[in-house]
Design the sequence.
């Protein structure tokens, strides 16, 4: 069912994954008062019918089409929509779009006849159009799906929204309840950001926490995710970001807030533990355990053994992650994690690999090394991700990284981890990575390894005496640097500046001529800026 309730789309807000085909930055969601300032009028209305629309405002975009939805106006919230009906023109997904991947997504909406909505609109001609062209991190910004067609009684927009969301929360339809939870999550100050602040998080937690015990898994799990949003263990997909927060960051991947607090989990951990110990579906119970990350209540440690020994794989896997909050440096801890690493279920072994990285205890690295050779590729990937979060100066970590150098699945990531603090021992290998564009075969993304290698090598060469550079001592590595690839204009600009700063005009001119042929845009603009003052580009 393609309604606003079920189309819970996620905006592409980070250019984090090197293998992504399309990505662009989306702006932050707007608070209701700012959104209202952009709108000529706001109304609550019931969708009657939808048809194709012709309007010059709606530029052609692959995968999307201009539509016109007729609304029966129920309540005027701002301005005057001009009577009992209004024709609202907007983008919608084109019919038959299917799995088509667009290079750009506009703000778009889909309305179901018979369903009521709150709509923010701009006046145009005899009707109205959507208030915004570009979408934000809140994909349905500017429209709220409503449970029914009761008139609006509240006065302010936050009050109106709250009343509508409470009605949806109490609806007999699970989809309504889940929709309300997601709306509240996006309109309160959630720990990971990307939310507006119409409602206090405590106010939302109070409204939602009772839904965690609902028998419908989709409702219970949506509520648990909101309550435990401050837990970095909620999803394995965010594990690399947390590893880079508690340990060494993975180049190209963002970090989470190192001071993050799981306020919802701390307030509701007893209720979460009750769900974990209930007869709810196993996925719901496992999620409740994950949602208690960073709470560290003493009583939870007493419950841990039951979950760690549970017959259900997702529960054991979640418990291993949560146990990292309580594990202390001790031989006993090493023995426990060695046991978890031998679990018959790959999901548990993968959690073990991540938990070792979350603890950042080098004493457990030998267990992690064994997991890098696991028969399951997801376990091996998690183990390598965790290994790379440890500081390479630690002897046991350095030994593990060196042992991993021949691993095609992770090459050249272990090399780069070693070379960050000791490039001189790896200059030839860095040069080959740049030239051959070496890339791991079992990785979830991050900065392009050849680019990381380029930055490490370039930083090292910048630290060498200019006389040695001019004498040709480092020519082999300068040749490699010049094969940087087309990442941006900054790299060729900085190489050119490097040569001019070291009084090598002939090599600079030769490089400039070749670099211009390798790109489709005007590099002379950037080279000319360097000519004016080469010194200001040192160290960029």
Sequence:
């Amino acid at each position: 069912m393609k309604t606003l309730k079920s189309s819970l789309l996620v905006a592409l807000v980070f250019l984090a994954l090197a293998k992504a085909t399309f990505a662009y930055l989306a702006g932050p969601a707007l608070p209701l008062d700012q959104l209202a300032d952009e709108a000529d009028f706001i109304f609550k209305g019931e969708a009657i019918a939808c048809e194709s629309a012709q309007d010059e405002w709606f530029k052609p975009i692959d995968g999307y089409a201009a539509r016109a939805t007729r609304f029966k106006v129920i309540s005027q919230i701002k301005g005057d929509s001009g009577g009992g009906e209004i024709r609202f023109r907007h983008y919608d997904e084109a019919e038959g779009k299917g799995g088509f991947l667009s290079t750009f997504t506009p703000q778009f909406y889909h309305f179901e006849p018979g369903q009521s909505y709150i709509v923010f609109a701009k006046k145009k001609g005899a009707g109205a159009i959507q208030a915004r062209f570009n979408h934000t991190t809140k994909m349905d910004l500017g429209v709220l799906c409503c449970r029914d067609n009761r008139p609006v009684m509240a006065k302010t927009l936050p009050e109106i929204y709250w009343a509508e969301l409470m009605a949806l929360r109490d609806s007999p339809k699970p989809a309504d309840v889940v929709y309300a939870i997601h709306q509240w999550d996006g309109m309160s100050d959630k720990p990971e950001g990307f939310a507006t602040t119409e409602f206090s998080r405590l106010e939302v937690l109070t409204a939602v926490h009772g839904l965690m015990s609902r028998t419908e898994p989709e409702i219970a799990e949506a509520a648990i995710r909101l309550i435990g949003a401050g837990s970095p263990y909620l999803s394995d997909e965010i594990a690399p970001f947390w590893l880079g927060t508690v340990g060494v960051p993975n180049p190209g991947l963002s970090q989470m807030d190192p001071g993050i607090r799981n306020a919802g989990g701390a307030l509701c951990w007893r209720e979460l533990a009750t769900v974990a110990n209930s007869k709810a579906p196993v996925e719901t119970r496992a999620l409740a355990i994950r949602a208690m990350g960073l709470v560290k209540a003493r009583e939870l440690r007493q419950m841990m053994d039951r979950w760690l020994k549970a017959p259900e794989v997702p529960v054991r896997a979640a418990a291993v992650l949560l146990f990292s909050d309580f594990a202390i440096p001790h031989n006993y801890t090493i023995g426990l994690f060695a046991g978890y690493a031998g679990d018959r279920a790959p999901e548990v072994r993968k959690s073990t690999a991540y938990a070792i990285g979350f603890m950042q205890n080098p004493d457990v690295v030998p267990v992690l090394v064994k997991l890098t050779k696991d028969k399951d590729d997801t376990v091996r990937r998690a183990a390598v991700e965790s290994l790379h979060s440890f500081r390479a100066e630690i002897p046991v970590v350095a030994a593990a990284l060196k042992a991993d150098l021949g691993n095609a699945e992770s090459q050249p990531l272990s090399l780069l981890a070693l070379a960050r603090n000791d490039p001189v021992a790896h200059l030839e290998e860095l040069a080959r990575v740049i030239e051959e564009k070496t890339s791991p075969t079992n990785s979830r993304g991050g900065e392009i390894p050849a680019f990381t290698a380029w930055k490490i090598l370039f930083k090292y060469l910048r630290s060498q005496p200019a006389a040695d550079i001019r004498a040709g001592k480092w020519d082999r590595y300068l040749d490699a640097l010049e094969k940087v690839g087309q990442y941006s204009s900054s790299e060729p600009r900085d190489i050119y500046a490097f040569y001019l700063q070291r009084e090598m005009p002939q090599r600079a001119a030769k490089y400039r001529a070749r670099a211009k042929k390798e790109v489709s845009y005007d590099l002379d603009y950037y080279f000319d800026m360097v000519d004016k003052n080469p010194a200001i580009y040192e160290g960029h």
Summary: Residues 1-23 have pLDDT under 50 and may be disordered. DSSP finds 23 helices and six strands in the chain. Strands lie at 41-52, 64-78, 85-93, 116-124, 127-130, 143-146. Residues 13 and 492 are 27 Å apart (CA to CA).
